[in-house]
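User: Run a structure prediction on this.
Assistant: Running it now.
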Amino acid sequence: MAWLILFLAGILEVIWAFAMKLSQGFTRPVPAFITITAMVASFWLLALAMRSLPLGTAYSVWTGIGALGAFIVGIVALDESVHPLRLIAALLIIAGVVLMSLAPSSTH
């Protein structure tokens, strides 16, 4: 259940990042409200997931989902660059998140 909660927290991170871009520096009320609401919900769900997942794993996966999601939304919705170096960077983020989630969480 913690992994599902963490995934939802990551999706909300993508939503707040996109809404923040649309808020144009918090000058547009609706996107600004969505940003703040999604941000609070994302942090709350991250905190819930951290009850049973290790800090490093939970935080890395959460930020990885946010980074990759924002990258994809930027390309799809905002017509941002699909430069090969950006794609390689995205693949490295995926590799890091996968390795972090597969690594043992305890040394004992």
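The CA atoms of residues 23 and 101 lie 33 Å apart.
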